[in-house]
Amino acid sequence: MINIKIDLHIHTKYSADCNTDPKSVSKKEISNSVDCVAITDHNNFSSFRQFDNLIKIIRGEEISTNKGHLIGLFLEDAVKSRDFLEACDEIRSQGAISVLPHPFRAHKNPGSLVRAVDMVEAFNSRTSLTKNEAALELARISKKPVICGSDAHFLSELGRATVKVETEDVYEARKLFLKGKFTMNFIQSPFYAHPLTWLVKGRNILPRIFS
User: What whole-number distance in Å separates Cα of residue 198 and Cα of residue 35?
Assistant: First the structure.
């Protein structure tokens, strides 16, 4: 059986706080021996057609809801609702997976949200060790499967957190995720990743405000 290695949480220039071109992701992906990526742009579902057809892609989205961020993986369409519970239902109606990303970063009461999702992102490369440990404990108490993702906003972060599954079929991987049949490998992103991201977001948004 062939293993595929997947980074389940990356961003491109279709997120306001990222300037990474999808075509560059494809090249970096190969050099990092990552076989597949889940594109989870912020409130955007437009980047998929920009990737090389030879690259395995999971269609996702990171939605800004009234309770914090929510990720949908294996989506067919963009998630319209910005209500956390409604968005979870919308993801499920597509046969997709709902993930609570970095639960202890930018969420209101993650303990109440975890019940509505399918999986918990227990390791996020841009999140502190303490908060990742809290996310793992939250998943354990809630009996939810865990996942990891790099949350890459720069090419240098791509592949810092990956899952490896024993299948060649990306959509077969969906079933394996929910059953916990995969292995994870992860390292932290450098401490300056967030400040650089804020700088990128400022440069992207300010011209729109003052135009």
Answer: 29
